[in-house]
What does this fold into?
Amino acid sequence: MTTFVLVHGAWHGPWAWDRIVPLLHAAGARTLAPDLSTTEDHGLHDDARTVVAAIDTVLREDELVLVGHSYAGLVVREAADTRPDAVGHIVLVDGWAGPDGSGMFTLAPATFADAIRARAETSGNGRRIPPPPPQAFGIVDADDTAWLAARLLPQPLRTFTETTRLTGAVDKIPGTAVHCRPGTYPFDRLGEAVGYRTRALDGPHDVMLTRPGPLARVLLETSSFKNEKHRV
It folds into this structure.
């Protein structure tokens, strides 16, 4: 049995996977979708601990595929580094990733970091980042835009300022970096840089909302994917 631990990105919640989960269940997989959204101030390391707690609930005989969308690429790699023997594969969906000491503000362009800090200062009491409009995630359909706008939440600034703590254990876990086309940031190159195979998928950044079927197929393929990496 394969269990997918589905970790949502910034400004989102577990509902981001609502259109994917039924497809994975229909294929015979289990799913968990930990909730990183909160009204409290917290950071990347807090989110990684939440994901580790979810990993610890998965049956040891299950194959565990850890999936991180966007910002959560950083989160799932830190969580996997803590539990390398429990995670069979990591999938980044348009996910940010890098070596030890990487974070949103070290990987994204300086203009992005400056804009985020300014929004937090002017509209988030210096601690929270107001959500951008759905169009920032590539969502343009009227119904999807209304659905997403009603659910997006402020994001704690500390999740973007904190950087990952990695021992190197995560680098022994095989991974796949799914990058959406047309791309907004070089997610394919970020995936390649951490040693993952890359897969292109036509769709916007929030591809799990607009093209759940193709994304579910990619996720299911990873559950049986073998590459040349071996744990030592």
